[in-house]
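call fold(seq) -> tokens
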Amino acid sequence: MQIVLHRVANPIHFVLASHWHELGTGDRLLPKDTGTDDFVVFDRVQKSYDGEVLVVKDLNLSIGKGEFLTMLGPSGSGKTTCLMMLAGFETATHGEILLDGTSINNIPPHKRGIGMVFQNYALFPHMTVAENLAFPLEVRKLGKAEREEKVKRALDMVQMGEFGGRRPAQLSGGQQQRVALARALVFEPELVLMDEPLGALDKQLREHMQFEITNLAHDLGITTVYVTHDQTEALTMSDRVAVFDDGRIQQLAPPDVLYEEPENSFVAQFIGENNTLSGVVETMGDGVCTVKLDSGDIIDAKPVNVSAPGDRTLVSIRPERVEYNRDRLREGVHTLKAKVQEFIYMGDIFRTRLQVAGRDDFIIKTRNAPDQVRLTPGQEVEIGWLPEDCRALDA
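ret:
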């Protein structure tokens, strides 16, 4: 078996070399191939800072090689703590974290073979761009020619090849972020962690960088764990998204499944725009239940997080699944009376706010098309949707 060793000294940059990986000056080795697709595993991981309150509760999560997984959730949900435990900057109170089949609980950060990209870039201000990338290579005592080759390749990856002689202060925010990304990739690590890396950028640049990072990760086959509170960012970039709340993963799924098929009320409300109506389950059938809304209206829904008649429920309907054009409503679909509150032109879509079943925050989104009926405030209409698009969730 071929043995490849690299010295690792700087905790900001890490490397996983082929076949075997040296973890640092302690000469501890990690085997690369364990015959499993699970590259990162959280096994019943808990975290408490005070010994009483659990910030992370019994986390079980497997991440495949080459996967781009995003941890998404509001502040305090536990997502960043999970990333910090994986990086080694926080210690798990209970449970085990495995990297490529080997426990890393007791391995310090700079020996884990993990690349990291931070929101604040963490570039050395007194060094040029090329020197920032070359520094960890010098620490590992790579020869000058090899250093220059690796730096050039990393900068070319992020389209910064002409900026090697500049200092960070001479770069824009987006350029600094590209340099930080190049520094994390300079050793071609198999795992890269990103903590809100685009949070400081403006909207247009952020959207551009989302595609650049995703394409780079997939092209290089790098396993990426990405933390954000931005729903659009998570849906745009990820192979799968883990939605966190109250220290637990509420749902783990590909972006389209997460949006189209939320498993509970929190996910339905947190991901994208969503309409909810409160009621009680009256009957349960084969793949459909009847719900009596608090307003007295009766609708059909898909039972997702209810179990029996009498259960309180929030029914969830995405705004783009609702129709108000009478000609488009299918036969047999329950309709509700609605009153237009606002009709807003948004270019590619119309956004309509209505009063429905006692609520005045019901939203419909329709595409801007020649045959689309335009409504006016105060107008009364009938709305409807398919039962399978209406999900009966927990109350």
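The chain has a mean pLDDT of 85.
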